[in-house]
Amino acid sequence: MAGEVKGWDRNQMAARAAEELKDGMYVNLGIGIPTLVANYVGDKDITLQSENGMLGMGPFPYEGDEDPDLINAGKQTITELARTSYFDSATSFGMIRGGKIAAAILGAMEVAENGDLANWMIPGKLVKGMGGAMDLVAGVGKVIVVMDHTNKHGDSKVLKACTLPLTGKGVVDRIITNLGVLDVAPGGLRIVETAEGVTEEKLRAATEATIV
Length: 212
Prior knowledge:
About 15% of the residues lie in helices and about 25% in strands. The chain has 4 helices and 12 strands; from the N terminus they run αββββαβββαβββββα. A hairpin with a 2-residue loop joins strand 11 (about 180-185) and strand 12 (about 190-195). It is globular and about 45 Å long.
């Protein structure tokens, strides 16, 4: 894939993911690119939930305004809002497991055409654990994955079948990558749109999964 069109950058991918959110939604943001979505919510009435016990996260703080006691699940400093509430992890996961969260925007290492998600470990590498991802993909209404379309070697991360340990089976609804937007559909993936400067042919060439 060297020398090919890059499409959207991380911030543009996050801004595109923010377009998926509607007024009144409670939304969980995963670690990585998804955390940037908080900066693009704008005037929408969205309540962001963090599994470490925070409901109503604000955008990232400006440099010099950081509060080390205010962090998201990825240990990044964030801001609070007038309506922010705090609670323990048991309450947080009660919300997630109880179906109270409308959508989760997560990163991924691999996604399969049937909606399988692998986003928590690479065998042989030290990991701290799955975190909240397994609960999120099982408990939320809609799962949106935001990730680069290919790895650093140029290999597709949008696959016919995942090769890494799964976080969840058949859980992903929509995939947003630097090359475009794909939906999980019967028989494979459906192209919703391509990123600026990316042709459908480029998107198909970078995708191992079946496109219907």
